[in-house]
Design goal:
The chain is of the alpha+beta class. Helix content is about 30%, strand content about 30%. It contains 13 helices and 23 strands. The strands form seven sheets. Strands 3-9-10-16-13-12-11 form a seven-stranded mixed sheet. Strands 20-19-21-22-23 form a five-stranded mixed sheet, with helices on both faces. It starts with a helix and ends with a helix. About 35% of the residues are buried. Bound molecules: adenosine-5'-triphosphate.
Length: about 425
């Protein structure tokens, strides 16, 4: 039996990871706010992803496009016409549901449903004043901003095929039924890649990115045994896709999509080229050949990664005869890498020495926390609950021989360590 969602939601709120959006006004369905620990966790995930897929590869680059785009782009991509979910309304209680998640009668009141109608999930917004105003959309995915910049990237930095463009940022979907904590929200973040290549190479690129998705799963600390690949059947794939894999994860509420990987042919570039009238082909300078590249799209949700990591990390055990809860984050994603304590708060020599160690560490590793509240046991519990891998205590022996105690979160074991070794130990 895995962890229940309520325990994760409660710890996330109590310890400053994730709060209900606009909570003082009673919340706002489908919106969540990340607190001090949550924003660090989320930034670590995004930085890890960016480093692995953009900075450490020489065939990748990034963009950061505007969230609001010319609405013509969303017409060309098919989102204005087809980005919709089937909506059902209960005739009795008036509640709305996604038709594909239901059978028969209203699960709330037993009433009967109206006819199914298609509900477009894009949020509209009005750009400009008065009669000049144009209706546009908050982007429902980050991929669109990559395709419309394909020509700019090619013309400005001249990448050679195969190459990819990555983008990380907010996406918005007016989900009919937001649910399951941050799994299905109306505002979320995505990390997406469009990897462009020659069409005969698509199978090789697809396999490569399939491996890369697993490399990220391992590096972030998501338990591989909870991830399952689902080959999307031809009748469920988009018409232009010859292969799609959903990477599903065993969330506390069931097995659901975490990430996606799709071969999209040349659908997107061709659609934008024909709607805009701008040539979006690629010229191979060596052969003189001109063609529209094909594309593989690995798509990652940041918030679903946060939830998968919380699910994997949440652990309850007995330590020294006491029950405790801790998050066993790996060092790459842990919001705080180590905490520094003076053994006693009221001994100025210990506090001064601990401050020196803290300042020295913080210069090398910014995500270090100071804690002198309550007794050592309480401090350990607090750090365990936010997933801090190491706690460092400065005591009287430190003043004599320059060693500190370093406590391991998972085992509770304490060892004496030279101050000079701390940075390499924490980074380990
Ligand atoms: P679902 O079927 O669960 O609605 P989807 O197939 O529509 O998801 P994609 O369009 O493939 O999702 O989006 C890419 C990724 O963005 C998903 O794999 C997921 O991680 C994330 N994502 C999509 N919708 C949401 C949402 N409403 N809230 C949080 N993350 C989302």
């Amino acid at each position: 039996m895995g962890v229940e969602l309520e325990k994760i939601v409660s710890l996330a709120k109590r310890r400053g990871f994730i709060y209900p959006g606009s909570e003082v006004y009673g919340g706002f369905s489908g919106f969540w706010d990340y607190g001090p620990l949550g924003v660090e966790l989320k930034n670590n995930i995004k930085q890890l992803w960016w480093r692995m897929f953009v900075q450490e590869r020489d065939d990748m680059c990034g963009v950061d496009a505007a969230i609001i785009m010319n609405p013509k782009a969303w017409e060309a991509s098919g989102h204005v016409g087809g980005f919709s979910d089937p909506l059902l309304a209960c005739k009795k209680c008036k509640r709305r549901f996604r038709a594909d998640q239901l059978t028969g009668i209203c699960p709330e009141c037993g009433g009967s449903f109206s006819e199914v109608r298609q509900f477009n999930m894009m949020f509209t917004t009005s750009v400009g004043a008065g009669e000049e105003a144009t209706t546009s959309y908050l982007r429902p995915e980050t991929a669109g901003g990559i395709f419309v910049n394909f020509k700019n990237v090619v013309d400005s930095i001249h990448p050679k095929l195969p190459f990819g463009i990555a983008q990380v940022g907010k996406a918005f979907r007016n989900e009919i039924a937001p649910r399951d904590f941050v799994f299905r929200s109306r505002e979320f973040e995505q990390m997406e890649i469009e990897y462009f290549m020659r069409s005969p190479d698509w199978e090789g690129s697809f396999e490569e990115w399939r491996g890369e998705v697993f490399r990220f799963i391992d590096a972030s600390g998501i338990d591989r045994s909870l991830v399952h690949e689902l080959e999307v059947a031809p009748e469920d794939r988009a018409h232009y896709s010859q292969r799609t894999i959903d990477f599903e994860f065993d969330f506390p509420f069931g097995r659901k999509e975490l990430f996606g990987l799709a071969y999209r042919g040349d659908f997107d570039l061709s659609a934008h080229a024909s709607a805009s009238g701008v040539d979006l082909s690629y010229l191979d300078e060596q052969s003189g050949e001109r063609f529209v590249p094909h594309v593989i799209e690995p798509s990652f949700g940041v918030d679903r990664t946060v939830l998968a990591l919380l699910t994997c990390a949440y652990t309850e055990d007995d330590l020294g005869g006491e029950k405790r809860t801790y998050l066993k984050f790996n060092k790459a994603v842990a919001p705080i890498k180590a905490a520094v304590f003076p053994l006693l708060k009221n001994k100025p020599v210990l506090v001064a020495k601990a401050r020196d160690v803290y300042t020295m560490l913080k210069k090398g590793i910014p995500q270090i926390m100071w804690d002198d509240n309550g007794n050592i046991g309480k401090r350990y519990r607090r750090q365990d609950e936010i997933g801090t891998p190491a706690c460092i205590t400065i005591d009287f022996q430190t003043l004599e021989d320059g060693t500190v105690t370093m406590r391991d979160r998972d085992t509770g074991e304490q060892v004496r360590e030279q101050i000079g070794n701390l940075i390499s130990q924490i980074k380990g």
